UniProtKB/TrEMBL annotation, chain A:
The keyword tRNA processing does not apply. The keyword Plastid does not apply. It comes from the Bacteria. This is Uncharacterized protein. It comes from Rubritalea profundi. Keywords: Repeat, TPR repeat. PANTHER family: TETRATRICOPEPTIDE REPEAT PROTEIN 6, UDP-N-ACETYLGLUCOSAMINE--PEPTIDE N-ACETYLGLUCOSAMINYLTRANSFERASE SPINDLY-RELATED. TPR repeats lie at residues 50-83. SMART domains: TPR.
């Protein structure tokens, strides 16, 4: 049993040095609307305080008022051109507004002055995101791969992005090799699971079958493990049919049909596909489409749906 | 395992030789050991209310020991800087932190100086959180979200502030994997931004809140989550038993499984199937009332209780029962809900569920200026007189108890005041943690020719009273509705000087000869630190 206790580190992070006392003088119990109102009032009297615009942009963003947020982030950058958080937030908003060129220009401009590896990495990752949305997969791969070399503790998203670009580029072996590096570095089980999926996709299911069986017995819900197990079994094997049928039954018990858990619906879509029930798989895929989910996982699902059901 | 410790600076001992410097490790995963934990949110002002909420919890707990506590974020206003962490978190909670682990989730205020993406900043310096499933659960690889096990309960902490909240983002994918693995009997999740609120924030209008509801709740409920704790909205809001309430705006149609109050002493505990059953109902608790200013926009339609007073939650999971109690600054229990698990409970929807119950502080005009006793009066029932009283666990009087005649042969006799702990009581009661209502009655004689309109009641009380004259209710203070065992919606009130209630308006109820006055006294919570009921009846001169 590990002992958890408070340990105060005396480290003053880089983040803290740029700390801005945004809400000083604002009451903490106010709604975003009130906060915006008060911030606007304060901006009138001190129109050159970048922190106020940044704070207001965040509130606008949380209310879904993207164009207001964009304007405020731009003002922050006029006053303080090196502000990293505003650069990244603005780049993301511009990308959502289908202005990838403006977004890339902004990031490139800021990248020139980037001093620390961490800022450089975050800017490169942001660029990689934009390239991905414009389907420039090689550039996206290069960006995220360089970013990964610059930071000690990259988040899972970064490795997952690298993996999906690999998939788009047809680099199935490199995909699982790099996920293995990620898993070793971060100890994230999600990356471990993604590595297992990547091994299956690369036709190396035999190697991961013992792990799949082990995890399956350790789990309360087994559908995802059954789906993975099925991919290690011959197409005509009775066991394969059994584990897939079992998975569908379990998922149906857990799915709220009015508004399903997307992660389960995606699994079920794949299970139907592996069962050869292409009609049901198509229905689930259409359902996912109506839910407007944008994710690497959906691209991966589509890749799976295009592949033949069996991958021995 | 319990450890005692001391802190040294080289050879110099910094901590005193005091047994409170200790901590206890978690029991082994899967064991059935009961757990008691504290949940508090939005507290980090360093101010008087934060202190009062902490003291209220300590008062309630007395000699009981917390196993750990959960902070749902905003623990270091205004920007989560290192000095703010010292002042508003470590210094404020020092007596508790000395021997109790705090499991934290990051609030938006800490998010101004700390980042979930990089796991850097004062928040990540202040806590050491598991990344490799060191305390159970599934390794997340990040301190921003994590899970742990305590005996047979699985706890999940998410970052609702600055990470991707989409259903196929890394956090959601990890959540799904974590949930399919756990074999616990109970499942509790916590984060900062509430999926259901109409307090200082609005879950129908703000992005983080909407996304946590639309994207994250379906994943949790498909795995049978029991309770979700959040903050951010500065209020106490506690839901009915709900499932599948993912729509925007939130509605109460088709999603409420039990619209009762979940209180075994009220509508009864919420029932769920044994173990973790998908879509069997969740209780949502917004505990954003830990210290900063409170605010309410409206009543959220999925809530059972909405309380506009400061406080925190004490949770207990014991065997097949989960009990949640909202503790105010006096240590009184203002809300209780219980989830009871057993057998198989079929999911059924309540059509047109009832509206939430609102508890607010009494308007200032009412509570701040009680009338004081008149200068000249004669006693009808003097102070310290002997009354019949009924007091005990689950003891409530039969119908007609407030009118004469009534059989009081199984009631006790005692001198007023009645109560405990605040030393103003002649008749001491063993109420604490056993019962919260006391009934007293006394007959009195009025001569023919008395000016009935001069009758008045003086009473010192804590927390609430309902007074009856010859069977008719004439005064009600601090009870929103109902009476006796059905009394509901208590407000706290401290005893002090006699407060005066002129009864002249009720003179038609009186008659020459024998009359009866009856009073029920209620404590706002069963664990409250004190109780008082000390009446006199007078004729004003
Ligand atoms: Fe907050």
């Amino acid at each position: 049993m590990s002992i958890r206790f408070f340990i105060r580190r005396v480290v003053v992070g880089e983040f803290l040095l740029s700390a801005i006392f945004l809400t000083d003088g604002l009451h903490a119990h106010e709604s975003p609307h009130d906060t915006i109102h008060k911030l606007s009032h304060r901006i009138e009297s001190t129109p050159t305080n970048a922190a106020l615009y940044y704070a207001r942009a965040i509130e606008y963003k949380s209310l879904g008022k993207a164009s207001h947020a964009v304007a405020d982030f731009r003002t922050v950058l006029r006053i303080d051109p090196s502000n990293l958080n505003s650069t990244l937030a603005l780049a993301r908003l511009l990308a959502v507004q289908s202005k990838p060129d403006q977004s890339l220009k902004l990031l490139d401009g800021r990248l020139k002055g980037a001093v620390s590896d961490e800022s450089k990495a975050r800017l490169l990752k942001a660029k990689s995101d934009i390239y991905f949305t414009t389907k420039q997969y090689q550039r996206s791969y290069d960006g995220v791969t360089e970013a990964l070399t610059l930071v000690a503790k990259p988040s899972d998203d970064w490795y997952l992005q690298q993996a999906i670009t690999n998939l788009q580029l047809g680099e199935l072996i490199r995909r699982h090799q790099q996920l293995a590096i990620g898993f070793k570095k971060s100890a994230s089980e999600l990356l471990h699971y993604s590595w297992i999926d990547a091994k299956l996709d690369a036709g190396e299911g035999k190697e991961v079958k013992p792990t799949i069986l082990k995890y399956r017995t350790e789990s309360r819900f087994v559908s995802t493990w059954n789906i993975r197990l099925a991919q290690t079994l011959p197409l005509e094997a009775t066991e394969r049919k059994q584990v897939l049928a079992e998975a569908v039954v379990e998922m149906n018990q857990r799915l709220n049909m009015t508004r399903p858990d997307v992660t389960l619906l995606m699994d079920r879509c794949l299970a139907y596909h592996l069962q050869g029930d292409l009609k049901r798989a198509k229905q689930d895929r259409q359902w996912l489409e109506t839910m407007k989910i944008q994710s690497f996982q959906i691209l991966w699902l589509d890749w799976k749906l295009q592949s033949p059901a069996a991958a021995e | 395992m319990r450890y005692f410790y001391a802190i040294y600076d080289k050879d110099k001992r910094i901590t005193p030789a005091d047994a409170s410097y200790q901590f206890t490790t978690h029991p082994s995963i899967g064991s059935k050991k009961p757990v008691k934990f504290w949940v508090v949110g939005d507290s980090g002002t360093g101010g008087a209310m934060q202190k009062a909420v902490h003291e209220g919890m300590q008062k309630y707990m007395e000699s009981l020991k917390l196993d750990f506590y959960i902070h749902v974020g905003d623990m270091a206003y205004r920007s989560g800087t290192d000095p703010e962490f010292s002042r508003n978190f470590f210094n404020m909670y020092e007596p508790t932190l000395r021997n109790t682990v705090c499991w934290a989730s990051m609030g938006n205020h800490e998010g101004q100086t700390s980042s979930g993406e990089t796991q850097k900043g004062p928040y990540y310096d202040a806590y050491v959180l598991p990344t490799k499933a060191e305390a159970g659960g599934l390794a997340s690889g990040t301190e921003a979200y994590y899970s742990f096990d305590y005996a047979n309960t699985h706890f999940i902490c998410l970052d609702s502030h600055d990470l991707d909240r989409r259903p196929l983002g890394a956090m959601a994918m990890w959540l799904k994997a974590d949930l399919q693995k756990t074999k616990a009997d109970w499942l509790v999740a916590f984060w900062h931004h509430p999926p259901y609120t109409k307090g200082s924030h609005d879950s129908d209008r703000e992005q983080q809140l909407i996304e946590m509801r639309e994207h994250i709740m379906p994943i949790l409920e498909a795995s049978g989550v029991d309770a979700v704790f959040t903050g951010h909205s500065h209020i106490y809001e506690r839901s009915m038993l709900i499932d599948g309430a993912y729509a925007t705006p939130s509605t109460n149609q088709g999603v409420v499984l039990d619209d009762g109050d979940g209180d075994p002493k009220g509508d009864g505990a919420y029932k769920k199937s044994a173990g973790l059953a998908p879509h069997n109902g969740t209780v949502q608790v917004v505990t954003g009332h830990g210290g900063t200013g409170l605010r309410r926009k409206s009543n959220h339609p999925l809530m059972s209780k909405v309380i506009m007073l400061h406080g925190s939650m004490i949770m207990e999971i014991k065997g097949d029962k989960l009990t949640g109690e909202m503790i105010d600054v006096h240590g009184a229990v203002l809300d209780t809900f219980v989830i009871e698990k057993g057998g198989k409970v079929t999911r059924s929807i309540v059509e047109n569920p009832r509206a939430p119950k609102l508890i607010e502080p009494e308007p200032k005009a009412k509570s701040s200026k009680p009338h004081s006793m008149p200068k000249n009066y004669s006693n009808v029932i003097p102070r310290g007189a002997t009354w019949h009283y009924l007091a005990g666990a689950k003891l409530h009087p039969a119908k007609g108890w407030a009118s004469a005649p009534f059989d009081v042969s199984d009631w006790k006799l005692g001198a007023a005041g009645f109560g405990y702990s605040d030393k103003d009581d002649k008749t001491d009661l063993d109420m604490k943690n056993k019962y919260s209502a006391v009934y007293i009655r006394k007959e009195f004689t009025l001569e023919a020719g008395t000016d009935f309109s001069a009758l008045g009641l003086g009473v010192s009380y804590d927390d609430a009273i309902i007074v009856y004259l010859n069977g008719k209710e004439i005064v009600r203070r601090g009870v929103d509705s109902g009476a006796g065992s059905k009394a509901k919606g208590f407000h706290t009130h401290e005893a002090g000087k006699l407060e005066y209630f002129p009864l002249g308006a009720n003179k038609k109820l009186l008659k020459p000869g024998v009359n009866v006055i009856a009073i029920e006294g209620h404590n706002a919570g069963i664990g409250s630190s004190d109780f008082s009921l000390d009446p006199v009846l007078i004729l004003k001169k």
